[in-house]
């Protein structure tokens, strides 16, 4: 089952995504694997819906 998540970075920007494993996806975003977060400041966390 897919879950929707919202990432908040330290610049106040939000990113909405979906994943079957949001925790692993958050790690990917924070490590720079994701294109969107690669050039942005590290994420403060995620909210799952």
Describe the structure.
- The structure is a single chain.
- A three-stranded antiparallel beta sheet has the order 2-1-3, covered by helices on one side.
- The protein is built from two helices and three strands; from the N terminus they run ββααβ.
- The chain is globular.
- It is of the alpha+beta class and about 50 residues long.
- It has one domain (about 5-49).
- The mean pLDDT is about 80.
The mean pLDDT is 78
Q: What is the string of helix and strand elements?
A: EEHHE
- Characterize the largest beta sheet: strand count, sense, and whether it forms a barrel: 3 strands, antiparallel
Read across the widest sheet, the strand sequence of neighbours is: 2-1-3
The N- and C-terminal alpha carbons lie at a distance of: 12 Å
Radius of gyration: 10 Å
Could you give the count of β-strands? 3
Structural class: alpha+beta
Flag low-confidence runs: none
The helix tally amounts to 2
How much β-strand is present in the residues? 35-45%
The share of residues in helices is 25-40%
Return the domain count. Answer: 1
Overall morphology = globular
List the helices and strands and how they pair.
Layout: E1 3-9, E2 14-19, H1 22-31, H2 35-38, E3 43-48
Antiparallel strand pairs: 1-2, 1-3
Short description:
The chain is an alpha+beta fold and 49 residues long.
Short key terms for the protein model shown above:
49 residues, 2 helices, globular
